[in-house]
Amino acid sequence: MAEKFAKFQRYVLWLYRLYELNTQIAICEPWEKVFCHILIGSCISLILYASYAYVPGYCLRLVGFLIPPAATNINDTFNNIKCATADGICSNSESYLT
């Protein structure tokens, strides 16, 4: 078990060194490394949050657009769309963020 843990530690250290060399952080001073790590971590976390918050709503909207619900009459489908207001704001739009 200890041998597997040591092998895992070496692998993680190798990945970290690879990350440092590929991003050119290896040549920075320690305070610059911290700044770069925080900057990269912030960008990745913002991308992950945006993917979590916005992509499901867009996917549901796309599926609803591509596969509309079965309507008995074609006019029923168009009557459900209430975007023809004077100010141009859809009344049936939903917010997926709370």
Describe the protein's architecture and organization.
The protein has 98 residues and is mostly helical. The chain has a domain at 35-66. The protein is 65% helix and 0% strand. The protein has three helices and no strands. The protein has helices at 2-22, 30-66, 74-79. The chain starts with a helix and ends in a 19-residue tail after the last helix. The model has no long low-confidence stretch (mean pLDDT 77). It is a multi-pass membrane protein. One of its GO terms (biological process) is sphingolipid metabolic process. It is found in: Endoplasmic reticulum membrane. Pathway: Lipid metabolism.
How are helices and strands ordered from N to C? Answer: HHH
Number of strands: 0
Q: How many strands, which pairing sense, and closed or not: the largest β-sheet?
A: none
Class from helix and strand fractions = mainly alpha
Radius of gyration: 25 Å
DSSP strand content: under 5%
**Share in helix:** 55-70%
Question: Average pLDDT, to the nearest integer?
Answer: 77
- Shape summary: elongated
Give the uncertain stretches in residue-range form.
Answer: none
Query: How many helical elements?
Result: 3
Spatial gap, N to C terminus: 46 Å
GO biological process, one term: sphingolipid metabolic process
Family: Belongs to the SPTSS family. SPTSSB subfamily.
Subcellular location: Endoplasmic reticulum membrane
Organism: Drosophila navojoa (Fruit fly)
